[in-house]
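tool_call: predict_structure(chain=1)
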Amino acid sequence: MAELKSLAKDTAIYGASSIVGRFLNYLLVPLYTAVLPAASGGYGVVSNVYAYTALILVLLTFGMETGFFRFANKEGESPEKVFANSLLFVGGLSLAFVVLCMTFLRPIATLLEYPDHPDYVAMMVLVVALDSFQGILFAHLRYRKQALKFASIKLFNIIGNIGLNLFFLLACPWLHVHAPGTVNWFYRPDYLVGYIFVSNLILSAAQLGFFLPDLRGISYRMDRPLLRRMTAYSFPILIFGLVGILNQTVDKMIYPFLFEDRQEGLVQLGIYSATSKVALVMAMFTQAFRYAYEPFVFGKNKEGDDRRTYSAAMKYFFIFSLLAFLAVMFYMDLLRYMVARDYWEGLGVVAIVMGAEICKGLYFNLSFWYKLTDETRWGAYFSLIGCAIILMLNIWLVPHYGYVASAWASVAGYGTITLVSYLIGQKKYPVDYPLKDMAVYLGLATVLFIIAYEVPIGHLALRLAFRTLLLGVFLAYILHKDLPLRTIPIINRLIRQS
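tool_result:
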């Protein structure tokens, strides 16, 4: 139980930066959708470019984050030497990437169908190189359990990015009209999409300053035998990482190419991406859990096998994922105001996108078996299967059904690899997961969801009150079945005092 409390504490800290940060980033969604109307396709451009950068980020980190955790926790290995070799490798790879892309910038921009904006490509090349290098630095903070520093830097980046976006997208247009002399020397009214990328670049560069103390006092010597072992371990992780990120972004990358009219594809992509942001609550929870869970699992494995802890972690992840799903869906009448009204037509995909996120989280929980047994090739196989399913379904169905098909394709892809990973994992590294308990929670959540949407209540306040009551039923079952109030330290203390 102590181990789970430690995991919960780290998840809470990482979650604070992730959830608060993502919530603050939510504020950018209404801003973007307000200044970039759906018909302009501007938000589609932003989503398309960021989809490519997400893929390249995985390529440049080369699976070294997981490799770092694995080798830093191995007997006989020096954690600081592992850290130095990880930094040298990822830093060198990122630098080579920047030089190559800047040399062939215009051909690359033309290939991506942004011939008039090679500047978009150049900025994001620099951003992804900086972020990949800093990914190892963030992993080092997680290894050293410096969760507060990790969270502080993340929040600085997010708050600063929001500030710059507000400056470029709201303050500058106002000043351009009322005091043009103050901004005309650098501001262009028709460059709104570009300023989103400018803001990202400035903050990625500024963030590096926080890590300067961590970069001192380290012997930067390449240990070739160690690096060969690390790259051999990390390469399969790179492959399934690349395919895994393709699972998340391939629809946004190929979407404009699936329509005869590219502008129509960008418009639909903008609507799909904007409304999918409402489902980010699930992504926040999954990411926070991942930040805490990966070093936790490798640390526990170093101490000894503890499969009961892994089983319990899976159960609690699933329970709170369902709670997050119900909370978002029950308060959709309020959350829809996160996007402008001309984007509301896409809100029907939110439940589907959240379902895909739950499957993704379950798959991540299952993935530790091949990481602990050093059979990381299985991760590559699973990712390839998932990517093939998502890609084929997008190409086949999107031209006919639009972004709804993209959302269901993600559910199909992640659902399939979750099932396959479970079946093979039970043979390679069996864990007794509480499937019956999880099925009961799923059934209860399904019933409550159906009741919430099938019971017609016209008045908004009454409808929200009724759904709050339903959410309370689910929460009460959690407290009764798996999280009695006496297990919560503060409440237990109050009970004892009374």
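agent: The chain is about 80% helix and 0% strand. Proceeding to next step.
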